[in-house]
Amino acid sequence: MIDSVDKLTQRTADLKGRTQAGTQVLVSMGTCGVAAGAAPVLDALKSEIANRKLENAVKIVETGCMGLCHCEPSIEILSSETGKSFTYGNVKPEDAGKILDNLNDIAAGMSTVERTWYYPELEDNTENKIQARIVLKNSGRINPELLDDYLANDGYSALAKVLTKMQPQDVIDEITASGLRGRGGGGFPTGMKWSFAAAQKSDDKYMICNADEGDPGAFMDRAVLEGDPHAVLEAMAIAGYAIGANHGIIYIRAEYPLAIQRLQIAISQAEKEGLLGDNIFGSGFNFKLELKYGAGAFVCGEETALIHSIEGKRGEPTFKPPFPAVSGLWKKPTIVNNVETYANVPAIIRKGSAWFKKIGTEKSAGTKVFALAGKVKDVGLVEVPMGTKLRDIIFGLGGGIENDKEFKAVQTGGPSGGCIKADKLDTPIDYDNLIALGSMMGSGGMIVMDEDDCMVNVAKFFLEFTLDESCGKCTPCRIGNKRLYEMLEEICEGKGTAQTLEKLRNLSHTIKDTALCGLGQTSPNPVLSTMINFEDEYLAHVQDKSCPAGVCTKLITYEINDNCVGCTLCARNCPVNCISGERKALHVIDQSKCIKCGVCYSACKFHAIDRK
Amino acid sequence: MINLTINDTPVSVDDNATILQAAAKIGIRIPTLCHFELDCFSIEHRMGSCRICVVEVEGRRNLAPACCTPVTEGMVVKTNTIRAINARRTMLDLILSDHPKECLTCEKNGDCELQNLASEMDLHHVMYEGEMSTYKIDLACNAIVRDLNKCIMCRRCETACNDVQTVGILSGVGRGFDAVVAPAAMMPLNETKCVFCGQCVAACPVGALTEQNNKYQVWQALNQKGKHVIVQTAPAVRVAIGEEFDMAPGSIATGKLVAGLKMLGFDKVFDTDFAADLTIMEETTELIERLTKNENLPILTSCCPGWVKFLEHQFPELVYMPSTAKSPQQMFGAIAKSYYAEKLGKKPEDIICVSVMPCLAKKYEASREEFAPEGVKDVDLVISTRELADMFKEAGIQLEKLEDQQYDNPLGESTGAAIIFGASGGVLEAALRTAADWLTGEDIKEIDFNAVRGLEGIKEATVNVAGTDVKVAVTSGLGNARKVLEKIQKGEAHYHAIEIMACPGGCLNGGGQPYNHGDSDILEKRKEAIYTADSDLPIRKSHENPHIKKLYDEYLEKPGSKLAHKLLHTHYTPRKNW
Amino acid sequence: MSCCDCQGKGQEELNLIEQFPEKREQLEAYIATLDIGDDREKNRGFLIQSLHKAQDIFGYLPLSVQLFVADKLKLHLSEVYGVISFYSYFTDKPVGKYKINVCTGTACFVKGAGSILEEFKRYLNIECGETSRDRKFSLGALRCVGACSLAPVVMVNEKVYGKVSTKMVPDIISECK
Ligand SMILES: Cc1cc2nc3c(=O)[nH]c(=O)nc-3n(C[C@H](O)[C@H](O)[C@H](O)COP(=O)(O)O)c2cc1C
Ligand code: SF4
Ligand code: SF4
Ligand code: SF4
Ligand code: SF4
Ligand code: SF4
Ligand code: SF4
Ligand code: SF4
Ligand code: SF4
Ligand code: FES
Ligand code: FES
Ligand code: FES
In this predicted complex, what is the ipTM? Predict the structure, then answer.
């Protein structure tokens, strides 16, 4: 039991001073790493180490995500003797031998991945480093299933400080001074939110962690929970102390089994050591945590819907006021914060608000984690100081567009956000700038699109998502979004007119103005932002009945031109067998059967197929 | 008090008022659709879902729903800016784009809040047309029709069924465009534990929930050769039907009602009130028996079929508790098809017995197997107050202009004790009036039991009857019944008699009454009318009804006799709880 | 889940609760660990986890299972059904042995998840959300499994296929044995 601050200090000191194996091999074992094949690599490394009897010299650490999605499975070698480290990407099981052959230098025939991040809490070296890791400090560095690993990195020292040296109001003041804003999308100042709940008199209050991460194409929170679960627990206890809550609930989506498992382990470890539960550090403060699971509903990310979901109801939002801070879960004052918001808290307490405030921009302090995906070369999880330019993320960290295509747009803010065009790539990212661009920060999904993406179709995609995920409670969202979707469908099928565009725009504005919850209030954003930024594409669909990107199947045809040498490749690949022609003779497509899948178009090596 | 301005007019309202209430105070009506309140029962349905009531509030990014936005000090509200008006029109447009615009053939035609809204907002065409929802119409039960194609998702029925009645058979189903309100697995109502109280129908602003219409069968019966067609009218009908003919709420239209029914061509116009007196005779006998033996207490009233069905489904272990007396409607039918038939020299099957009820559950009750001895139904056809008003209108009968007429005999005579059956507390009060006389053997003059009157959901009183304290409770609304029954189950309540009515306020607020559209005042007026009618009558105790006495003398012998049991009593069956 | 208009009839479903007593006991044992009391509001707080458990055990949630959970938690069947029909994770229809789920999250979408889904529909001859007649395959779409780097992603039961192309579709199907 770590039931006093002294014991914690002692334990941490012991852990820091423990003799480390000569070399540590960190293996990225997040969902993403495992999906990419990290498990066989881990097995290979283990058996090679056993074969070579290196158990004492080399220690394997199964970590959470390193953020190097583009080259998973990835591993990092840390030498405690030389202090050097190398990161390898795209590791295959057969590489295990090579790597263990030479632990002090880059293994023969393998290339390393350059590290683009630094740790603001530990070092000031920002040279060539676009990323700054506060939230992801431990992710990819420690074994998330070992409490000792967390403690060795000053884990729970912030909670100790809060419980023994600070009054609840001091904690709120510190968080307020740090300028931390909610990372779940809205950017509401966290300290201020806490103060609302703190001001309520109530026999019970609740602290909720929103781990519903419903934005499709975003996986920041998953990485934090899988890579550093104790950070979230510690932060929730701190927040509980600040507002006077003794109960915490983590609402996590059921689609994240690994994160759930790691949280379960972390909670039971913390309970066992007395870091959660009654009389933490002998301070008299009690804090209990439990997990509740989502069941596949994006709208449950909205805080009132989330609360209803925990209460076992349909996840329908309700009108605010009353705000959850006044009447939330079981009608008690309740604070809902996002995973990443929490993950910032221990560092702020340890290093102070002034330190945090220096990072980022004036109105948006700290860093933001983004899940960079889509048509970018190096997809990954990145954490950058607020104020970093979109260009530096997409072209710097992301390495530019795949297959040397033309950048077209980047979508931020998920289904609530908007598409940003190339001419705005030098905008420094923060909450307010993104809103000014007609998008929003959202939770941190960042999807890059290239010339092959049809922006009308992209808008339709997001609308389809909202349509699916709308709770159906209020008129503008239930019926309005359906109508928006139908209009976009018309446009994509070449049936749209100038009036359709007009109606689309008007209805979008009205839905934003009238919908009951954030989902409906933002659902037209992808439509409006593409209509503004890519008007020419809409006009092409409506006036010329053509889809410039060649995506909208009703508006395109595939035809074989004279370049055809009769190689038969296309015919062999066509899924519906609608291409005919003799070997070495011109091929023909039966237009009545063609399903416009485009397989032939990409298969032909002779530029003999036209898309019109 | 909070001060704000609406359309530049200052107004002060209570701290917890909404913009809607504040605006009403200065004569500005903001249109609403999903919103529903009935102050007299503290029913407050503030979903904020239709967004028809949106207004502009200074400093707010988006529009605010007036029905659920609380006022704040210094608030500046504009209800009629072009932004708000356009938004409201768009909301209406969207609702209509997913609505079958069949007003001319809709049951709700003329009484529909959506239709009124469209008329007020003067929308001339629907701009955002697109796919419409399609659901099969639920015609399976004989009380209620559900046409979800007309549902506008206000969820008022859910509040009525789940929160007020706690029957709990309605829920939001699905989500997004496909969301709808329905029982589990989209089951038809007759496969659920629905009690057919019709409170959902009373709450529904549109034609999605309506009564199963029996008007045409009644027209047919009236024109059938060789049949003797009689009608009975329930106590609460006479104090409400006038509303359908522009008479002020609370008008007592008994004589006009009788006149109208005669004009429609009924052979005899009788009164359910007669049977209500009969019910008191049987029920009070049972009460006194249980009281004197001090067993099987409390006795629960059994004249409300909605409540009886609720008990059978949700408290099956208590089915032994209610009085075994049939409801007045069924007693009437049973007597009509035995005693009256014999007198008339007709076979029971040649008599068609029609009832006019404030109630939809009565339609279901009439069809219960127990009430068709030897295959002949006690009551053949049941229409609601609203349906009767429609028939009058169709026949061109201007009720308000008719000369009063008297009920026929022998089944038309009744007492003040019977008429108060229409209000919550009335049945118990009527029983106490008789019990007091019977137990003391005197003619007690103090017969106003004010403690059990009124629209409150649970009323408790200890009444001294012939020297003994009788502990009684009166509940209306099944949510309140549940509370009392749960107490009984836990052994926390010790009553001798409890009156339970399914509808909040009793039958005067039944599911078949003219729509109140959330106006508590109407219900208060109906209640007052009932007690006025009682005190205006010369005879106010059931056992003093001369025709009732005659009925026993000539036919039934005495209350609780063998024949009385055969004709006037029933039993209850536990049913599945879903 | 959409609501069919079979209106509850013709659903001559098996009563799984009666048919599999061991499974029923398993579910019963789980619910017994929860703090169920007389307060329906509090009981409801255990509903979603109970349904998760029930679906784990029975594979899907037909009315018989819903009713069982409703009774144990002292809730109305309509509440349970309303919840099941709201959350896409729950299903009241039997699912196939192989649950093929195509990720249609944004990252996968821009990388062509749409045509992959179409391809599965064509090969299996079922629509999204349906199960093949032989109960071998169910086809579904899900939103982001958090492996966006491997987009487009297809999941077959627990197995993740990354960087899927339309060409791989027949192979993925034939791998299911
Ligand atoms: C439709 C919708 C979905 C949301 N989804 C999430 C989510 O998945 N995760 C999250 O943290 N916040 C989500 N939010 C925002 C939350 O409602 C809430 O503002 C947030 O959790 C507050 O935490 P923060 O202040 O730490 O950002 C969503 C909001 C809406 C309207
Ligand atoms: S905006 Fe959409 S999700 Fe939000 S309450 Fe309305 S219908 Fe539900
Ligand atoms: S587009 Fe697809 S279906 Fe059409 S011809 Fe080419 S391969 Fe065949
Ligand atoms: S692949 Fe190209 S060249 Fe070959 S047959 Fe097809 S169209 Fe002709
Ligand atoms: S519900 Fe109302 S608006 Fe709809 S068809 Fe009937 S009367 Fe007309
Ligand atoms: S309002 Fe128009 S449509 Fe309606 S009944 Fe009159 S004339 Fe006919
Ligand atoms: S009739 Fe009564 S019990 Fe039946 S659904 Fe309506 S409110 Fe519920
Ligand atoms: S059925 Fe009627 S009361 Fe119920 S939600 Fe639909 S419109 Fe409202
Ligand atoms: S209270 Fe009256 S109107 Fe309501 S269900 Fe009972 S008998 Fe019918
Ligand atoms: S490597 Fe883990 S999220 Fe990409
Ligand atoms: S009446 Fe206010 S939202 Fe429906
Ligand atoms: S969008 Fe497909 S895995 Fe994230």
Answer: 0.94
